[in-house]
Amino acid sequence: MASTPALLLLVLLMLFANETTAETNHTHLIPIGSTISPTGKNTSWSSRSGLFAFGFYPHGNSYAVGIWLLTQPKHTIVWTYHPYSPSMSSNSTLRLTKEDGLLLLQENEDPEFLIPLYFLHQAKVEVASASMLDSGNFVLYDKNFSMLWSSFGDPSDTILGGQNLTGGMGLVSSVSQSDHSSGHFLLSRQLDEHLAACRVNSTCEPEDAYWAKNTYFEGYGYLQLSLSIEGSLCLKDYSSGSELECLASSKNLTDKSKNATFIYRATLDEDGDFRLYAHQFEGNTSSGVQTLWKAVEGDKCQVPLCGLNSYCFIKSDKVMCQCYPGFIPIKSGGNDTRFLDCEQNHSKDNCESIEDPTMMYNMTSLKDIYWGGSPYLVVPIEMETCKKSCRKDCDCRAVLYKSGICEKYKLPLLYGRSSKDASMTAFVKMPSGIVLSPTSNQTALSPTKPCVFVDDKRSLIMILSLTLGWISFFGLVFVLYIFIIYRHQVHSWVYKCYAAGQLNKLVADDEGEDVDWKILERMVKLGLWCVQDKPSLRPTMKDVILMLEGLKDIPVPPSPAFFVE
Ligand SMILES: *[C@@H]1O[C@H](CO)[C@@H](O)[C@H](O)[C@H]1NC(C)=O
Ligand SMILES: *[C@@H]1O[C@H](CO)[C@@H](O)[C@H](O)[C@H]1NC(C)=O
Ligand SMILES: *[C@@H]1O[C@H](CO)[C@@H](O)[C@H](O)[C@H]1NC(C)=O
Ligand SMILES: *[C@@H]1O[C@H](CO)[C@@H](O)[C@H](O)[C@H]1NC(C)=O
Ligand SMILES: *[C@@H]1O[C@H](CO)[C@@H](O)[C@H](O)[C@H]1NC(C)=O
Ligand SMILES: *[C@@H]1O[C@H](CO)[C@@H](O)[C@H](O)[C@H]1NC(C)=O
Ligand SMILES: *[C@@H]1O[C@H](CO)[C@@H](O)[C@H](O)[C@H]1NC(C)=O
Ligand SMILES: *[C@@H]1O[C@H](CO)[C@@H](O)[C@H](O)[C@H]1NC(C)=O
Ligand SMILES: *[C@@H]1O[C@H](CO)[C@@H](O)[C@H](O)[C@H]1NC(C)=O
Ligand SMILES: *[C@@H]1O[C@H](CO)[C@@H](O)[C@H](O)[C@H]1NC(C)=O
Ligand SMILES: *[C@@H]1O[C@H](CO)[C@@H](O)[C@H](O)[C@H]1NC(C)=O
Ligand SMILES: *[C@@H]1O[C@H](CO)[C@@H](O)[C@H](O)[C@H]1NC(C)=O
Known about the structure:
disulfide bond; 4-stranded antiparallel beta sheet; transmembrane helix; glycoprotein; binds 2-acetamido-2-deoxy-beta-D-glucopyranose; G-type_lectin_kinases/EP1-like; globular; 37 strands; Bulb-type_lectin_dom_sf; Agglutinin, subunit A; disordered C terminus
């Protein structure tokens, strides 16, 4: 009946908040009907210790709702409600209600459920009280003191002692120390089992991550990141509580006075580094903070602090960003050049200019600079051929040349930084002027033609094999997917053929005579690697390109589990 989904919701709810009554002293409860407002008498609810508070804090010209630690001279914000757009007017009010949890009331606006308790109604659960706990966790209780919601379950940029970062959770850095809106960096667990830090707008593939930690441990599965009350930042198995690896601890704490209380927090800071801090309190008076650990050691440019088409360098110990030659800043950001985004300073798009053959390009070499991301094409050719092929290729905007390998890049160029690696040369394509040619009208390409220029037969094969490779590769993945579904009927389908070196059997029905068997073999091998059960065995995107190109040997794949009878 109708109660079944409600029961399910209730169970779900309890699962999400199964940390029941960890603190048994319920003398510091916020009763139903309590209100706070930014300018009223009560602006926040504080914890029993007085060290933490939940409520309104100034945010630019308006207010935001959050939790802070009462440090001096400034409070430390450890949680923010709705960091994607935290601003609230001075007329807002927060009210603790039985049926709707925490309600945000703003003038001339519908009430907003501050905390996602929509399902409270269906589950027929009622809030009985709330509490700002001494751990820094803000919780809503039912009448049996089961937690219905906790701020620990929905972190912003910080985890506190006693808090865990589990699979579905991520941290997003703040814009700055004074603006706790969501900023530029993300820390979360990625599909490849790593806890990874990357730019928020990237896809957070392995090549996007500037810091990563494996969280998969054989025999345990995925571990969560836990910060203990005592200040150890460790990878822990949730069910057994075993610590498998610790990143940092309070052992290095200096000046540990006997009477002091320590509050630990791990924060993904606005500069992208992930740091462990210890705040020291004597009584309720804050007496300093120490940084115990940081994730990124050494060169600050390891963190992608520069935006699109700009590169990072250090000048008098400060991180600076600069546009590549031929690019200009999209908007000038004063003297803090971090996060600079740049665009081409010539309006003509590449492909457009190729159709207009009067446009000529130069390859400008950049000293000691390189960038990251994925090239769209990797070809083993001479440097001059590499430059030439980029000049003629409308997709190509820049190349990295290293030890006989030409990596061609489209825009935008990402993760640029200065480099001391002399064996690598970077070239950026720049328009160099107008050349009038009598045959120009004949050589112009029609807009529907693909913009592919080929220098020699070898490159043609490379390009064709890559194109064919991707099509076949996705085709193969799809086919293998279908294959998995029907594995009971036909599962002795592909691996045996491959193992027997008889790939042509697989395409017997196709018009297969023109297929290069070597390439096909590579693709099938690669396909088999890409469908390995263990994600750690699967190759990275970069490896896939190199392997398809034949620049990297493809080892013989292990037989996937489903091939074993
Ligand atoms: C509970 O809190 C009250 C008020 O702060 C305190 O007096 C009491 O000792 C606490 N009890 C326990 C068991 O911690
Ligand atoms: C403000 O808080 C005090 C105690 O914390 C409470 O007695 C009082 O009713 C509150 N005022 C309002 C308007 O909620
Ligand atoms: C700090 O503690 C003292 C004494 O215990 C108390 O008078 C004072 O109000 C407290 N301050 C805060 C901010 O809680
Ligand atoms: C707050 O409310 C008052 C009167 O109710 C109004 O005059 C004022 O403009 C409001 N302020 C904001 C920021 O909405
Ligand atoms: C609270 O506890 C009582 C007795 O253990 C139980 O009957 C009731 O269902 C519980 N209520 C909730 C909302 O969990
Ligand atoms: C991410 O992309 C969105 C949408 O394009 C944009 O509004 C936002 O400013 C970007 N964030 C950063 C940090 O670049
Ligand atoms: C964090 O995980 C540990 C086990 O590793 C568990 O004991 C603890 O209750 C969890 N804390 C929260 C707030 O869920
Ligand atoms: C503690 O300090 C030592 C040396 O000062 C350092 O080698 C070690 O990495 C530090 N440990 C942590 C967890 O920061
Ligand atoms: C610790 O606190 C007690 C009581 O407040 C005080 O007598 C003692 O001197 C303090 N010790 C230190 C090392 O500060
Ligand atoms: C920018 O430069 C001006 C003047 O040179 C200086 O007053 C200001 O503090 C600088 N701002 C930053 C963020 O460095
Ligand atoms: C482009 O190259 C030509 C010939 O190499 C040279 O004359 C011209 O000055 C270059 N233009 C730019 C903008 O570098
Ligand atoms: C190229 O073609 C355009 C019209 O399509 C014509 O106006 C122009 O004169 C031609 N230029 C040359 C160099 O033939």
